[in-house]
Design a protein that fits this description.
Number of domains of chain A: 2
Mean pLDDT of chain B: 90
Number of strands of chain B: 2
CATH class of chain B: Mainly Alpha
Number of domains of chain B: 1
Number of helices of chain A: 18
Structural class of chain A: alpha/beta
Largest sheet of chain B: 2 strands, antiparallel
Strand order of the largest sheet of chain B: 1-2
Helix content of chain B: 55-70%
Radius of gyration of chain B: 22 Å
Helix content of chain A: 25-40%
Largest interface: A-B, 37 and 22 residues
Distance between the termini of chain B: 15 Å
Structural class of chain B: mainly alpha
CATH architecture of chain B: Orthogonal Bundle
Oligomer: heterodimer
Largest sheet of chain A: 7 strands, mixed
Strand content of chain A: 15-25%
CATH class of the largest domain in chain A: Alpha Beta
Low-confidence stretches of chain B: 352-357
Number of helices of chain B: 14
CATH architecture of the largest domain in chain A: 3-Layer(aba) Sandwich
CATH superfamily of the largest domain in chain A: P-loop containing nucleotide triphosphate hydrolases
Order of helices and strands of chain B: EHHHHHHHHHHHHHEH
Distance between the termini of chain A: 51 Å
Shape of chain A: globular
Strand content of chain B: under 5%
Chain lengths: 523, 357
């Protein structure tokens, strides 16, 4: 434990990162109010807080993206003026953001080269990317085009990019949301190794179990202020939750069981080559979701998730009309709008830019998909009053924290925007709803609200298909879970028979799918 | 102290209206120095540019007449540009409108059919649409870049017009000059204002401006176009067909440009000539952006551009070389577009020392 021993005396000298009295006023919102925290060398500090608690603003201040109205930042005891991200990087601060900044048409190596501040860093870049990938368990091919990578793989690129700069202080904004249990274990291993090297790490997450497993101390923010800083060792999940939201954790919907009705959404033995060189072909994929059930789809990123979602939404038509059925109607060759008219709802994984138009306001973003199923137009003209009323209904029913429906989608936090998008789809009264990564990067309260809304929709007789890389979420939400691997979907397993081990095996392709399928049919 | 640009969270209202004023003041100062430096009276030159075109009824009517084609085409372009669909070939669509409309006028020459000019305009709009349909089809079917195809079709249209006025449509009594007959009276646009060249086609401008405004802000189809421009994946997700948007924007602009072409030949020009447009189709691209792709903005920008086009001709009568006139026009446009930066960004003065820290 040499690094730890070396880190110990430093800890007495000065914290690696000290933030004192940061205040940031936005128009109409005090995002940070006298926020202070410290991180010692060789320490992982959890930064906890709800939607809009001020975590992202604080990260932006530390990274030089936002100039605070007041407050100081010290690194190793030296006051630092961080006027830009370049200055912050030069001072040894690296951030892995929740929203990636990658050019989709460029390769991994090109993207990383663009983020480097000095040209020398570009030498041997692919080799160094591979080396870092191996060393920290972040395998990624430097020559692949980023647009073809899954969300999970894109995050690895972001982490590698930051690690290449050899930062002293590392900030991770909701890093585990897109990883499998195995990959989370790998990431934690990476983080522990970084900690042992004497780096200071700020870990932002809403998954309290993870924080308990990984972090040393937790600083909790609420309403832009620091509620307190506690050692994680002595705190229970409920203690942390209470500090964060000011009340006990809302119960996760684990006491429900769906009653299966008629098949509302199905895919039949679909084979479809990938339309990108590094994508995954769908290889005889069969899916059947019944009214009154939540079907969870597990799987590691890059096993056909994007292709399956495009086939379900209609953005990619199938070869035969019968390949996809919505409420019994052949829909394989229908475009997205026609599928929505048949009763399909869809929440995409990418919230800003796909699920919502960033510069448009909430009234317009509500209208975006709802107009297919609700009478929000007449003779081609938009009924502005009905459009506004619909947006207000979504905002009210799903407790979207926003000033008004005239706020642009890009001004909402991730959790609030997801509440709005899920709410929009649910209030369009779909008979089958497909939801991709519903709670990625969403705070605890919003997760509970979104889950409750999905369960409620199911209880009203709709089929709900949830695609997620978060096994805990699938196990708490789904009635049956199927695993997507290499473009094929396993037979669904009733939740009672699901164990993380069994699903983990299917996710890694270790068990021949056919054997599992037969066993499930026999059972 | 170094200036630095910081993105504004909200566009500043002060800058929105102040920026064009700053641009104008800068341009006037630049023009003063420019005209003085070539030995002309700068005040007379600036007067010829900005005052003379509008201080007589005839001047005013000429301004409106020049702004009309710019505004109509600019309105159409604004719709497509909002959806990131780049029709650069409005000039070609204008020429085809002139050919189509002109052919009808010549076919009915001397027949005395009342209201021929309406048929001329309609035919012009349709042939303009047909020409615009080519790049739209190529984009949708073969994913061919519409910027290149629509641009290149301008030169095809130009050659076609040249062939027709040298050949089939040449005036039989024209002593071999490459021109058609003068259109008969019933094929010419009736005048709106006696003693000027302003014709009834001008009445279409308010109709088109209000129509496009309604379309963009109050119709489902207009909403789709805006979504397509702001976030293409969101448009795909919401099921808004990209081919539909491409067709709509090309046919709309093609129709308007074709109409403009027909109104030019049936209006101020009165016949088919080898050259019938001083580049309205290109200038309308500037107009569309200068007007920030909004209907009211486009109409205002069209009149501003018309002013400096006419002003440029006026100063040449004072002995200013045409190249200097064009230089001045260029500076005005660059200053206007550059001042837009102030609307979206604010200038922050910071000391180098602080930046280095």
């Amino acid at each position: 434990m040499t690094p730890a021993a070396a880190a110990a005396p430093l800890a007495d000298a000065a914290p690696r990162l000290r933030v004192t009295g940061v205040r940031k006023q936005y128009p109409g919102c005090l995002a940070n109010d006298d926020v202070s925290l410290t991180v010692q060398p060789g320490e992982i500090l959890a930064l906890l807080g709800e939607n809009g608690a001020g975590k992202s603003t604080l990260v932006k201040v530390i990274y030089g993206l936002v100039t605070p109205d007041a407050g100081t930042i010290e690194i190793d005891g030296t006051p630092a003026t961080l006027a830009s991200p370049a200055a912050a990087r030069a001072a040894g601060i690296g951030v892995v953001f929740q929203h990636f900044s990658l050019f989709h048409s460029m390769t991994v190596a090109e993207n990383i080269a663009l983020g480097l501040d000095t040209p020398e860093g570009r030498r041997d870049l692919p080799a160094r990317i591979r080396a870092i990938g191996e060393r920290y368990g972040l395998a990624v091919d430097p020559d692949r085009v980023v647009g073809e990578l899954s969300v999970g793989e894109q995050q690895r690129v972001e982490i590698v990019r930051v690690l290449l700069q050899d930062p002293k202080v590392l900030i991770f904004d909701e890093p585990t949301s897109v990883l499998t249990p195995q990959a989370i274990a790998g990431l934690f291993d990476t983080l522990r190794r970084l900690r042992a090297e004497g780096r200071a790490i700020v870990f932002i997450s809403h998954k309290l179990e993870e924080i308990r497993a990984l972090c040393d101390r937790a600083t909790v923010l609420r309403g832009g202020r620091v509620v307190g800083t506690v050692p994680v060792a002595g705190a229970s999940v409920n203690d942390l939750a209470r500090m964060m939201i000011g009340q006990d954790m809302p119960p996760m919907g684990s006491d429900h069981a769906g009653r299966a009705g008629p098949v509302r959404l199905s895919v039949h033995a679909l084979r479809l080559p990938s339309d990108t060189p590094h994508g995954t072909a769908l290889d005889g994929l069969t899916l059947e979701a019944r009214g009154g059930e939540i079907l969870g789809i597990a799987g590691v990123a890059g096993n056909g998730q994007e292709e399956l979602l495009a086939v379900l939404s209609g953005e990619r038509p199938s070869p035969e009309a019968d390949d996809v059925r919505i409420d019994g109607q052949a829909a394989g060759r229908l475009p997205p709008g026609a599928r929505r008219k048949l009763g399909l709802g869809f929440v995409p994984g990418e919230r800003l830019g796909r699920g919502a138009v960033p510069p448009m306001n909430l009234a317009e973003n509500g209208f975006l998909t709802a107009h297919w199923r609700l009478p929000l137009t007449s003779r081609g003209f938009i009924r502005a009053r009905d459009r506004a009323a619909f947006a207000d209904r979504v905002i009210g029913a799903f407790k979207v924290a926003t000033r008004s429906r005239a706020t642009a989608a890009q001004a909402l936090s991730g959790g609030n925007l997801q509440r709005f998008i899920v709410g929009r789809e649910i209030l369009s009264e779909p008979s089958a709803l497909v939801v991709a990564y519903p709670t990625w990067g969403v705070d605890v309260a919003a997760v509970a609200a979104i889950h409750a809304a999905l369960v409620d929709l199911r209880d009203r007789g709709a089929a709900v298909v949830v695609l997620s890389e978060d096994l805990d979420e699938l196990l708490s939400l789904s009635d049956r879970v199927a695993v997507l691997y290499a473009g094929r979907l396993s037979a669904p397993i009733p939740r009672a028979d699901c164990t993380p081990e069994r699903l983990g095996l299917l996710m890694s392709g270790a068990t021949p799918l056919d054997a599992v399928t037969e066993a499930a049919h026999a059972a | 102290m170094l200036p630095r640009l910081v993105l504004r969270l909200q566009p500043s209202a002060l800058a929105l209206y102040g920026a064009p004023v700053i641009a104008l003041i800068f341009t006037l100062a630049f023009g003063y120095v420019l005209f003085a430096s070539i030995g002309r009276d700068p005040l007379a030159a600036l007067h010829a540019y900005f005052i003379a075109p509008v201080n007589s009824t005839f001047g005013l009517s000429e301004l409106l007449l020049t702004a009309l084609p710019l505004a109509l085409i600019g309105l159409g372009l604004a719709v497509g540009f909002r959806a990131n669909i780049w029709n650069i070939g409005a000039e070609g669509q204008l020429l085809l409108g002139a050919i189509g409309g002109g052919s009808v006028a010549l076919a009915l020459w001397g027949e005395g059919v009342p209201g021929t000019f309406i048929l001329v305009c309609l035919t012009g709009a349709i042939t303009g649409m047909a020409w615009a349909a080519i790049p739209a089809f190529l984009r949708i079917r073969f994913n061919a870049n519409e910027i290149l195809t629509s641009l290149m079709l301008i030169y095809v249209a130009d050659q076609l017009l040249g062939y027709l006025v040298h050949g089939p449509l040449k005036n039989p009594q024209g002593f071999g000059f490459p021109e058609s007959r003068l259109f008969s009276a019933e094929a010419q646009m009736p005048l709106l204002w006696d003693g000027t060249r302003l014709h009834v086609g001008w009445l279409l401008l308010p109709v088109a401006a209000v129509g496009i405004w309604l379309f963009l802000s109050h119709t489902l189809a207009g909403f789709r176009m805006r979504v397509g421009g702001d976030a293409e994946p969101a448009a795909a997700y919401a099921g808004f067909s990209r081919p539909g948007m491409i067709w709509l924007s090309f046919l709309l602009t093609g129709g308007l440009a074709g109409l403009v072409g027909a109104m030019e030949v049936a209006g101020p020009v009165g016949q088919l000539l080898p050259t019938i447009s001083p580049g309205y189709g290109f200038a309308a691209i500037i107009v569309a952006f200068l007007g920030r792709l909004t209907p009211l903005g486009v109409v205002l920008a069209a009149h501003l551009l018309a002013l400096i086009l006419i002003g440029g001709e006026n100063v040449q009568m004072l002995g200013v070389p045409s190249s200097v006139a064009q230089l001045f026009q260029g500076v005005l446009l660059v200053a206007l577009l550059a001042s837009d930066v102030l609307v979206r960004f604010r200038v922050v003065w910071s000391t180098p020392a602080r930046r280095a820290a």
